[in-house]
Amino acid sequence: MTLKEKHRLIWQSFRTIISYWYRSPIQFFTVIFGLALATALWSAVQAINSEARASYDRASAQLSLNDHSTITHVTRALQLADYVVLRRKGWDVSPVAQFNLPQTANISVILIDILSHPSRRTEMIPSGQPSTTEPLVWANYITRNRLEALDLDIKTSLDTALPDNVIITDFSQAASLGLSTTPLDHLLLAQEQLPNLKSIDTLIPGLKINRPALSTDTGTLTESFHLNLTAFGFLSFVVGLFIVHSMINLALEQRRGLFRTLRCLGVPIWVLITALGCEMLLFALIAGGSGIGIGYVLASLLMPGVSGTLQGLYGADIAGVLQLRSDWVLSGLAIAVFGSLLAGARGLYLVAKLPILQSPALFARSQHIQRIRNRGAIIGGVLLFLGTVVLLTTNTLIGGFIFLGALMLGTALALPLILSKVISALTDRAQPGISAWIWSDLRAQLHMLSLPLMALLLAVATNIGVETMTSSFRLTLISWLEQRFTADLYVRLEGKSAPNHIQSWLTDQGTTALPLMTSETVINGHLVSVYGLMDHPFYEENWPLIAKQTEAWPTFHLGQGIMINEQMAYGLDLWPGDQLVTGHFSQPILGVYPDYGNTQFQMVMAQKQLLLSDKPTHIPSFTILLNKIEKPDIINGLTENFGIHQTQFLDQNSLRTRSLAIFDQTFLITNALNVLTLSVAAFALLTSFLSMWSQRLPQIAPIWAMGIPSQQLARYEIIRSLALGALVAILAIPLGLVLAWTLLNVINVQAFGWKLPFHATPVSWVKVTCLSILAALLAALIPAGRLRSLAPSTLLKVFNNER
Amino acid sequence: MALILKNVTKRFDGQTADTAVLRGISLQLERGSSLALTGESGSGKSTLLHLAAALDRCDDGEISLDGRRYDNLTDFELSKLRRKFISVVFQQFNLIPSLTVQANIELHARIGDQFDIDWCGALTDRLGLSTLQNRYPEQLSGGQQQRVAIARALAIKPALLLADEPTGNLDESISLEVIDLMQELVKEHSTALFLVTHSTQIANRLDRQIHLKQGLISK
């Protein structure tokens, strides 16, 4: 056969195969929509992750500040003279100044010396000499456009890695922008320095080196958040794949006759498989393209929420606007192609093995279905076992997700067998006659409905699990906020505030002012915030501890031990009774306190103990107990005497409101994905009901002929669907609770560093069960409506075609 | 000689040589002639037809068409044989429900790269399908579907035309008309016609007839 003949044969076979879809538009729509939806959820999550990561990269790229130590003065601003002194003494430092661009609201200009800048000097002027053709002013597209819009005649070179509204330029350009060159903001310290240099504070007293934060890189901090999102995106994709798998295999099943006929007409099996492969590829590309479009819209809608979440939870700034990026677009297309091939692989294998003549006997088929159910349950059991082993033997986030994956997939695989046993038991107990028929008919449909029911089980269990987790988290957070933040007023100090004067004034007014002293240290590569607490019973009464030594607080105030937050306890595996040893510092751990919403390690010690250390400290805030003094008087007094702005005051209510707002924002996207996953599952069920329609008629027609009106049959259809929805929801509740337990006790600990108590929330379970039943009801409405208005001639065709 | 079967035996799972569905069948069929195969249900008629149509393989013996022995051919080569030289009219028609009448008639010829628009048009006219060309199979009566299946089978001008109860769904007068038309077309194009039927009346209209009983030719 020539190549041309082969192509013609494949093309003819492809045309014939694909003609099926002209006559089955609903099925075509469901396959495309199912795959598009699966791709959309995946793409949306990837788009969000990609955008967030790009923002982190931009932020990190800003002068590579994160990579370099900086030099500042403890009491005054740096001057150019300081820079000159250090350079003359051999220090490889580079000056950085920062100003606002005159006549603009928020465009920052960062002045650097490109000849000495540690990263820019190699990156931008390889020859070591400034380029004369390109302007020595860099900005990204958005900043450039803003400059143009403001009609400012500033020529810029493009640097897409820069953040929005930031210009970087050389000191030589400062005058042309109407800027001064001093004071300096800081000096950058190159990593490589000459040996045996005099220390900087010897050269200029008061200078200090600020090391870059080691473990606070935004990308690392938020990695767990993105991993959570990816896991949800993947779950949604898997649920979507159930639809595609179900639809593709149904379409293959319904075309068995067509395939046989083509084989009879002389189409070789490889041609048939090639044509089917082309069909799947075409579907994947159409659906993948549509899915990316839907995903883009979805991600655009969710992006502001994610932006708020990351800002609230991690202080990470990401743009709230989405860009079309090739990485997630291509990943969306790839996952659509991969997904459809995965979903259709078994079907293609069965077509390849399809005998031209035989069709399996009914008994053999039912035995085959039983074998598939048993095999699924066995594989499910093995997965559950392996997942549990991984959970018990590893103590990592990935291990937690592996367990979750095994738990969900294992239970889903066991579902058909469980449902079959339950429905068999119901059939055995049913009254002979129509009730027995209803249940036995449901059992007969089970094989076709297995996949969408698995999808529904996963979606409902995920909803229950995540609802339980967020409810537990919310309840714990509220209780913690009520316990921990009971002071009447909190004041945040900024700039030139003098803590000693403020404290004296507050004491004079009759209030109790508890200054919070703070410092930082690095332990095992982690930046740790250190707080010094005053000796006051307020802390013992209001500082909740999840684990403690006996006499923890008295010992603490004596300066004979420290307390650490839960994140640090899990991260460094330090618990009450252990000793924290770092350098010359060695203290016993007296207690571990919950610190929700924080991802950093933190420890508290008695203030006098902190003062003894050589760490620089400052007082960023006061906790004020009013002692029946009027709050407005104190606020007004502090404002008038110390210039403290209204925004620096925080009372318990606003603190609680703000914390809960951050919390709700954090789980906004999770809840959105939850609802979408449930919708996808409902859609899967609907598509299966619709696709089974033609195969249902031979079961329904004899019952109709025996005198059951089509309206009654329609009611049975709905009852059956509701029963399925309820059964799946009942099975999903324990699965969802295990999921919640894993999220609370494994995933949260690994991802965020805190363990949460489990709060049972039966109301949310009932809500999700109702949603499951509603999904089943909605899925059954269209088929039931069709059945209700079915013409007798359609049912009679069943008998006419009987052979 | 178009079709030759020599000592053909076919066994299904669990069958022994004595209980095989076909036991040493031998027959020959020339181009331009027709042969009716009769027999009771379960006598092996359809199995024999499937073997002759290169849809299945025999366990013993040999089958050849125009000198090409089936047992020497790969699956790919058997497919080519069916594509180019063999047509089957099935009892259940096996039309493609998603294709129109015209597309169904042309399908085998296009797959076999033997499409002749004039010949397909002529077949459509002679089988009385001209007004039904744009309809779908489900919109046709059983008799009309049968005629579409016959037109599709003849569209490649096959060396061997096999028909499994081709008139099982037609009333008597139309059945005889269809058989006469098939005979006529077979003669015109030197096709060998091998037809399975229960009807003695139809069998009598063909050139020869053999009767199958318990896997053996009885007359």
TrEMBL record, chain A:
It is found in: Cell membrane. InterPro entries: ABC3_permease_C, Membrane_comp_ABC_pdt. It is a multi-pass membrane protein. It comes from the Bacteria. This is Putative ABC transport system permease protein. Residues 673-791 form the ABC3 transporter permease C-terminal domain. The keyword Transmembrane helix applies. The keyword Transmembrane applies. Pfam families: FtsX. One of its GO terms (cellular component) is plasma membrane. Keywords: Cell membrane, Membrane, Transmembrane, Transmembrane helix. The chain crosses the membrane at residues 20-45, 231-252, 264-297, 328-351, 372-392, 398-419, 446-466, 667-690, 722-744, 764-784.
From TrEMBL, chain B:
Keywords: ATP-binding, Nucleotide-binding, Transport. One of its GO terms (cellular component) is plasma membrane. Gene3D superfamilies: P-loop containing nucleotide triphosphate hydrolases (3.40.50.300). Pfam families: ABC_tran. One of its GO terms (molecular function) is ATP binding. SMART domains: AAA (SM00382). PROSITE patterns: ABC_TRANSPORTER_1, ABC_TRANSPORTER_2. Residues 3-219 form the ABC transporter domain. It comes from the Bacteria. InterPro entries: AAA+_ATPase, ABC_transporter-like_ATP-bd, ABC_transporter-like_CS, ABC_transpr_LolD-like, MacB-like_ATP-bd, P-loop_NTPase. This is Putative ABC transport system ATP-binding protein. It comes from Epibacterium ulvae.
